[in-house]
Amino acid sequence: MSCPKVVILSTIVLLLVVGRVATEADPETQGQTVSVPPATPSPTEPLPFDEPTVERFFTAVKNQLRCGYPMFGVPSLVPLKLSYTLKTSFDLLSLKKISVVASNFTVHGLNEFSWDPSRTRFTRTSATIPLSFPNVTAFAHTSLNGANGTSFLELRNVTVRLDAQYEEKDDLLYVTELGGSVLLEDAKVKIASLFPKSAKLSKIWNKAIGKSLPILVELFNGGKLKIEYLSRLLSGAKFYAMNTINNALNSHSLNFDRLVESMVKFADGSPDSLQCDGTAPMTGDELVGWLRT
């Protein structure tokens, strides 16, 4: 559930801030016009942005997700395929010891999202962007205690808040912190072969797990639920995302203002905007490194 969040965060934050601030002062003193350099806004002062430009930017992002950014190690996200194998075990309320092996993950719906301008905030040192996904569906080949099947997880009305902090050093922009949260309205789960001898019991538990997911996500966001494996996974994903973003910023010698210019070019589809050029989608193996962390 957290993997798509981080992957799409890596892609979107590569081209993070859209909007330009320009302030001019032209005071007139004793009949003469004096030009005054534009005032430098406070690093923490919210910056105005042009909503239609941001909307065009996210439309371009949705198209870009189909081919990814191979030059930055970001694969195609439509759909996202992960060659990753998860192995774990747990007790189901002391009813059953379950050993789980899951592989060949496929995630659909990462290019279907909207953003909320009223809750979007940009400054010269930070950005907050809320994104809403109506439906994200993940399939995986699973084996439970040796019984094989295809399981799926459907997440409905997912709200992802992306938070980024950045700073300029030697005329280059660097991301110093990435974070955010996930809210989930509803989920549907079908874990294959959960109770092979009882279809009714499997249905009951699949439904119960799906209904509990929004509560578990909220508890995890608030730090009230500790899941060591998931924490390690998020930590590795964060490192991967920051590395990817900073490599992209450094490769193109971008500071804040030049990043803004490139965002506008990307939104308008300029020839030098780094938009999808028909490069063949990647397989997803590029993400395995942080998934193994």
TrEMBL record:
UniProt key word Signal: yes
Signal peptide: 1-25
UniProt superkingdom: Eukaryota
Region called Disordered, residue ranges: 27-50
Transmembrane segments: none
SMART domains, per the entry: JHBP
Keyword Hydrolase in annotation: no
Keywords: Signal
Record Pfam families: JHBP
Protein name as annotated: Uncharacterized protein
Organism: Anopheles culicifacies
